[in-house]
Every structure is written in C-alpha cells, then in structure tokens.
Write a structure and sequence with these properties.
Blueprint (H helix, E strand, L loop, with lengths): L6 E6 L3 E8 L2 E6 L15 H5 L3 E8 L9 H8 L8 E10 L2 E2 L5 H15 L5 E2 L9 H10 L4 E6 L13 E5 L2 E12 L7 E10 L2 E8 L5 H12 L2 E2 L10 H4 L3 E3 L4 E6 L12 E5 L13
Parallel strand pairs: 5-7
Antiparallel strand pairs: 1-8, 2-3, 2-4, 4-5, 5-6, 8-9, 10-11, 10-14, 10-15, 11-12, 13-14, 15-16
C-alpha cells in the first residue's frame, strides 16, 4: 500500500518523454535517444527570458484533444507526417537549475524548485506544469487519474533521487488497462514461417462482417497458442471476414478463418485509427459466441 506520507502521486501523461535544456538563452528539447525534438513545440522562443535562469527539466511532449486528454495516436501520426496537431510540453521535474545539479536531491526538494519556476513556465501557452495529485493513497490517486482521463499514475518516493536511464524502485508506474472481447478473423504465422501463431487478427461484429481492431501477438504463447492453432486450422477460409480493405502490412501472409472464436484481450484503449493499442491476449472465452458481442463492446 502506497501512502502519501512516503509517496507523491502524479498523473502519467501519454506522450514522448524528453529533456528540456534552457541554457545560454537557447531552448533545446531532446528525446531519451538523443533526437532533437525542439521544433515539435513552437512558441518557446521566449522561455529563456521568462525563466530567468538556465535549467534542465524533465518533461513529456503530448498532443491534447479538445477534451484536454493526451492523444498519443495523434502525436504518433504527426511524427509520421500526418496532421500537424498542436503539441504541449508537460514539465514534471527539475534536474539542473542555475548551475546546480539536483540529480541527487530528494524528490520533495526538486518539486519545491519546480514549483518556484512554475509561474514563469506557465506564462507560455505550450507549457503545462501539472499539480501533484491530492491523494492519501495510491488507490485514491488512481481513482483521481481515471476521472481525469489520464493514462495512469506515477508514484514517486518523496526521498528518492533522480537516476537517469535506470529503473528504480523509487518510481512506480501504474497504467490503466481495458479488457475487451473480440472475435478472431485470421492469423499470421511467426517469423520462423512455421504453422506457429505469430499474431491474431481480431475484430468485432459489424453486420455480417467484422470491424477490424488490429493484431494481437503479446500473450500468444504456451498451451493457449497451441490450442488456438489447432482450432483455427479447422476454421480456414479463403476470404477475409473483415469489412473493407486492409493494408498490405496486415494481409501479408494472413490466414483467414471463420469468425467463430471469441478471445479476451487487454489494451490501453484505441488509436486514432480505431485499432487496439498495446493489446495482449488474456484467454479464450468459451462462454461467449460472436453474436454476443457488438461493435461498441
């Protein structure tokens, strides 16, 4: 049980993690892999003047929908050359300020420094400095995050230092998962080219066809995979059961089947293309028939 006495709770934002350097009158944003992301967030030219000190900040690049919620799909599509959606900079930690490293400083002190900088940062429209969640426990923080439509919660030990590039027990992340029942309409073999299942092609009933929801490969192992492989062999058909045309990246090597088997997958919602995001197989639903499901389920 995580309590507010030892832990602080922040919203988990659904975007690209980045470091923001404000040094010598210039702003530079870099990804964890070292890629320059500065041009992704226009409107930061005045940041050095507003901030008044040199600093390195930990942040997340996010694309916000009209409801104020982060839309990772929109951000990813923008990176792939899609719509030029506005990108915001969510700042949640201060790592180096005015020549002093804060990496070995307790989180509580780093947060105090960030709170001192926050009014200046918030003068710029693209910048968001979210408040720490007012929660007495991790469970309460999750309830608050769910109400706000966040991706989850990050719990940080109040006495934890900042350890770049390392996993640490001082930060605990909890994402929300959604479970959905879907129908198997096809499958693709593993990379080895054997009859072993590489991924399932799934959807939900849409009239006399299936509405395509994506591929599910994670969790497709062991006895469940063997059981599905045997059953799907007996349901083979020549044509796709999905409505509309699917991309070549989906149909390549695809084996189509009669839509008879219902499985349960967990995922992090839908992408902007209507596909399951990060789906993982939970199991076969022997108690359900395809007709029990609806497009909205």
């Amino acid at each position: 049980r995580l309590t507010a006495a030892a832990w602080a709770f922040e919203l988990k934002w659904d975007g690209y993690r980045a470091l923001v350097g404000v040094v010598g009158g210039e702003v530079r944003i870099t990804s964890r892999g070292g890629h320059d992301l500065t041009d992704r967030v226009p409107g930061l030219e005045a940041l050095p003047g507003e901030l008044g000190v040199d600093a390195v900040l930990d942040a997340e690049l996010v694309a916000l929908g009209e409801d104020g919620r982060a839309r990772f799909g929109a951000l990813a599509a923008r990176e792939a050359g899609g719509e030029d959606v506005p990108v915001s900079l969510v700042v949640f930690d201060a790592l180096w300020v005015d020549g002093t490293s804060l990496l070995r400083t307790r989180w509580e002190r780093r947060r105090e420094v960030l709170d001192e900088l926050a009014p200046r940062l918030r003068r710029l429209d693209p910048v968001i400095v979210p408040e720490v969640l007012e929660a007495d426990s991790g469970a309460e923080a999750l309830d608050l995050a769910r109400e706000q439509g966040a991706e989850g919660v990050v719990a940080k030990k109040r006495d934890s230092s900042y350890r770049p590039g390392r996993r640490t027990t001082g930060w605990v992340k909890e994402k929300f998962w959604t479970s959905t029942e879907v129908v198997v309409g096809g499958w693709r073999p593993g990379r080895s080219g054997s009859r072993g299942l590489g991924s399932l092609l799934v959807g939900v009933p849409d009239g006399d066809r299936l509405a395509y929801l994506g591929r599910v490969g994670s969790g497709l192992t062991g006895a469940v995979a063997d059981e599905l492989a045997d059953e799907l062999d007996g349901l083979a058909r020549k044509r796709s059961p999905f409505r509309g045309e699917l991309g070549r990246d989906v149909t390549r090597d695809a084996r189509w089947v009669l839509p008879r088997i219902v499985v349960e997958v967990r995922h992090h919602g839908l992408t902007d293309h209507g596909h399951l995001r990060h789906p993982s197989l939970r199991g076969i639903r022997r108690d359900k028939l395809p007709g029990d499901l609806t497009t909205g389920s």
